[in-house]
């Protein structure tokens, strides 16, 4: 099906006016026709009543004489009884045997059907259409009175009723059409202004539109467009931030890898080559992990508008994640344990985001669980039900962080002093944890581990009903 071009489509204002006026015009037309029909019907009844009165007036002047029935009306009385200013009136009085007593012998009309004594009908006399009435009387003897009247006044009345009913209605309908077109145009002007604002807006300008709405519908449309612009702006900011993070964070490891390669190529000893290749491998692993964290952070930014939170079996998810980190903990000589898995725990969240934040917390804890005293490192994952939900905690016995450093470390790209001394991390892990928690409606917190040694990182998740 071929769509009409924009120029060939009617405007919204024209469509609204048409959809309002067409049913209204039809309704008014039917109402006017009904009004005219009722008015004409009762006017006919009034004319017929006057015609019947004339017939009875003639019947009342029929007298019984010795020679038979007679109509006792002089010519002057006859003109008085049958006077009409605008119509011609004809009559005939016939005896019961059909002979004419008085009047116009050529006037004929259908007789009433028994047992009725009166009948109205349409007839023609001398080429003129008449409205006639026939009255049968049986006193003082049987006779029939027929009176006919021309219909010019009736037709004129119908014409006047139509004129004075339809013409004002048409004028009112025209005025209503003009008023509707004008008022609908005023109501739709904010929509035209909104269209003009969108057309004039630069593609890079994602600021909210100014909407002067005169109705709730246009206000909702403007709010929906502004919400879309806000989501687009958020997405573009996330892309720009991701690009900036990649450019900033990968510059150092890539430069280090290049320096190691150049140094190795400048030497001819195989032992130096092997050492440099090992360092390149370590640097590449750190760069790969950095890329994964940057991608996770970008995913968290995008998840603000698209994540779907649902019921998650937290105890099972924690058990599976901790099992995956056990080989790494054994290789690093860290004692990794978990508490609180003895009861099912259900929370509102997202499997991937919970797994991501727990993975980052375990990664940070395993790298930093190196107490200054030289004791073995320990990392403990704990689940605890609280009045506000379920708390997922990760404890380590590393050097810990002071309050100022904990506050700064929650910002992107800010590395802790100990991480700088260890030469590891880009300061993104905890930022990712905070962002994932925010997306799921959870709260993230850093504080000293019990006993004052190490770090306690926890996320309070909403408990499922």
Task: Characterize the structure shown.
The protein has 465 residues and is an alpha+beta fold. The protein folds into 3 domains: 145 residues; 103 residues; 156 residues, Histidine kinase-like ATPase, C-terminal domain (Heat Shock Protein 90, 2-Layer Sandwich). Strands 8, 9, 10, 11, 12, 13 and 14 form a 7-stranded mixed β-sheet that branches. It starts with 11 loop residues before the first helix and ends with a strand.
Describe this protein with a few key phrases.
465 residues; alpha+beta; Heat Shock Protein 90; 3 domains; 7-stranded mixed β-sheet; 5-stranded antiparallel β-sheet; 10 helices; 54% helix; 20% strand
Layout of secondary structure:
Blueprint: H1 12-59, E1 62-65, E2 68-71, H2 75-81, E3 89-95, E4 100-103, E5 118-125, E6 128-137, E7 143-150, H3 152-200, H4 216-266, H5 270-306, E8 310-313, H6 314-332, E9 334-339, E10 346-349, H7 351-368, E11 377-386, E12 389-396, H8 403-409, H9 417-422, H10 429-439, E13 443-448, E14 455-463
Parallel strand pairs: 9-11
Antiparallel strand pairs: 1-2, 3-4, 3-7, 5-6, 6-7, 8-10, 10-14, 11-12, 12-14, 13-14
Helix pairs in contact: 1-3, 4-5, 5-10, 6-7, 7-10
